């Protein structure tokens, strides 16, 4: 019997993509999975296309692989297959292109001997139960797909489709099997997580309560939520011991003018009230923030930063605006020069870094940390507030939970010794 061909997965982008890669890995029954790129016969590139820069990263990686391993077949998957797949296929940069809906056909797809372009559709919902997360101590659970928002800067709805929820029974079965396999922390992910359930007559709060009753579930984290998706039923769960004490709530900006330009559904006044209510419950709070979007003049930037200082933020995912083809923002004027956006990015991140340091100084005790794999006696993990902690120990603490009653608070993170 001939040796099975080896497949290597390269994943770009968000947690949703990480989950999608695990779906493909779990279905890979007729090939051998390898963690070594140079051993592979086939490389599946699970791509991100959220910005033009993301497209460039994927394209550069593909070019590099083609140069180093000219005999290896390269298959493009992920969001980039919908936005750039046709061009890459036409230019013979890849052997094949597969859309999101084709993930569960991975064996059939990879057996193809001739070049192929199978983009599928944007209505598909996976039914695969992922029972193991290769190389992870935490489990990502995709609960929905797609987005109904139409923010000016975003291409994702056109490559992921409209919002649609996974079946509750599929999600719960997956959590149950992963918990039985030793996973204790679960991170709910999706394109627009907070929209879960609206098409099934249920809600995020109902799903969380049912997940919490599964034996072995110790902590649940939630991906990025929109402010308008946090309702009274969700707020009632904030005191539950299994809720991670960190929420990531996507604001994108704090200038009402810029929020309107971006076609957002939130406003500073309501965001401020919401954030203070949640912070009063002992939560760390993070957000996404776009810097340098067209129209962000000096006046609006000053207003925005004054408002950022009033928000109880502890974490930030800030990024400079990158023009995305085929979006409303791509043709907006005036554009913000790159050097100005870079300086604004630095200013914003410094403000939040100082807020995070203050928060960590006030929360040094009773930190529950799930450690990831380590080496040379150093382990890293995240506490319930989603702050990274470095733990040194002579014992093997890989994938273990530790309770820390005292940490050394540094400017860039916490440290402890066991």
By secondary-structure content and strand pairing, the structural class works out as alpha/beta
Q: Quick one: how many beta strands? A: 20
CATH architecture name of the largest domain: 2-Layer Sandwich
How many domains make up the 3D coordinates?
4
Query: What amount of the residues lies in strands?
Result: 15-25%
- Main β sheet profile: 6 strands, parallel
Helix percent reads 25-40%
CATH class of the largest domain: Alpha Beta
Low-confidence stretches: none
Round the mean pLDDT to the nearest integer and report it: 92
Can you list the strand order of the major beta sheet? 2-1-3-4-5-6
Could you say which overall geometry the principal axes of the C-alpha atoms support?
Answer: globular
The number of helices is 13
Enter the CATH topology name of the largest domain: Transcription Regulator spoIIAA
- Terminal CA distance reads 50 Å
Question: What is the radius of gyration computed over CA atoms, rounded to a whole number of angstroms?
Answer: 22 Å
Keywords:
6-stranded mixed beta sheet, Transcription Regulator spoIIAA, 418 residues, Rossmann fold, alpha/beta, 13 helices, 6-stranded parallel beta sheet
Briefly characterize the structure:
The protein has 418 residues and is α/β, with parallel strands linked by helices. Helices cover 32% and strands 21% of the residues.
Structure description:
The chain has 418 residues and is of the alpha/beta class. It folds into four domains: 6-118, 3-Layer(aba) Sandwich (Rossmann fold), CATH 3.40.50; 124-244, Transcription Regulator spoIIAA; 247-262 and 272-362, Transcription Regulator spoIIAA (2-Layer Sandwich); 367-417. Helix content is 32%, strand content 21%. The protein has helices at 15-27, 52-68, 80-83, 85-90, 106-110, 156-160, 168-180, 204-212, 232-235, 256-261, 268-279, 298-310, 338-362; strands spanning 6-11, 32-33, 42-47, 73-78, 96-98, 116-118, 139-142, 144-145, 164-165, 185-189, 219-222, 246-248, 284-291, 315-320, 367-371, 378-382, 388-392, 401-404, 408-410, 413-417. The strands form five sheets. A six-stranded parallel β-sheet has the order 2-1-3-4-5-6, with helices on both faces. Strands 18-15-16-17-20-19 form a six-stranded mixed β-sheet, with helices on one face. It has a three-stranded parallel β-sheet with strand order 7-10-11. The radius of gyration is 22 Å and the shape is globular.
């Amino acid at each position: 019997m001939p040796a099975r061909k080896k497949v290597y997965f390269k994943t770009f982008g968000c947690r949703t993509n990480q989950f999608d890669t695990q779906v493909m890995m779990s279905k890979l029954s007729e090939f051998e999975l390898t963690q070594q790129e140079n051993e592979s016969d086939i490389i599946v590139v699970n791509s991100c296309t959220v910005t033009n820069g993301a497209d460039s990263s994927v394209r550069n990686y593909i070019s590099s692989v083609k140069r180093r391993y000219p005999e290896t077949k390269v298959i493009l998957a992920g969001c980039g297959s919908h936005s750039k797949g046709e061009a890459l296929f036409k230019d013979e940069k890849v052997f094949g292109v597969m859309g999101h809906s084709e993930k569960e056909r991975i064996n059939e797809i990879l057996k193809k001997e001739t070049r192929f372009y199978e983009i599928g559709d944007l209505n598909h919902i996976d039914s695969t139960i992922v029972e193991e997360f290769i190389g992870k101590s935490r489990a990502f659970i995709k609960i929905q797909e797609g987005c109904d928002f139409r923010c000016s800067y975003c291409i994702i709805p056109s490559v992921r489709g409209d919002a649609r929820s996974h079946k509750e029974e599929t999600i719960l079965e997956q959590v149950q099997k992963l918990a039985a396999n030793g996973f204790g922390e679960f991170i709910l992910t999706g394109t627009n997580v907070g929209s879960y359930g609206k098409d099934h007559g249920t809600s995020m709060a109902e799903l969380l309560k049912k997940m919490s009753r599964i034996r072995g579930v110790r902590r649940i984290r939630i991906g990025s939520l929109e402010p308008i998706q946090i309702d009274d039923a969700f707020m009632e769960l904030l005191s539950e011991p299994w809720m991670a004490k960190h929420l990531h709530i996507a604001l994108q900006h704090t200038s009402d003018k810029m929020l309107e330009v971006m076609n957002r559904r939130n406003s500073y006044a309501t965001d401020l009230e919401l954030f203070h209510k949640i912070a009063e419950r002992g939560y760390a709070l993070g957000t996404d923030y776009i810097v340098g979007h067209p129209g962000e003049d000096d006046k609006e930037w000053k207003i925005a930063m004054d408002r950022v200082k009033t928000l109880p933020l502890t974490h930030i995912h800030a990024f400079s605006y990158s023009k995305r083809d085929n979006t409303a923002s791509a043709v907006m004027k005036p554009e913000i020069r790159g050097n100005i956006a870079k300086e604004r990015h630095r200013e914003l991140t410094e403000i939040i870094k100082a807020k995070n340091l203050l928060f960590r100084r006030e929360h040094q005790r009773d930190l529950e940390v799930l450690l990831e794999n380590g080496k040379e006696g150093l382990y890293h993990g995240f506490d319930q507030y989603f702050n990274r902690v470095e733990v040194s120990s002579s014992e093997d603490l890989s994938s273990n939970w530790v309770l820390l009653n005292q940490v050394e608070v540094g400017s860039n993170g916490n440290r402890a010794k066991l």
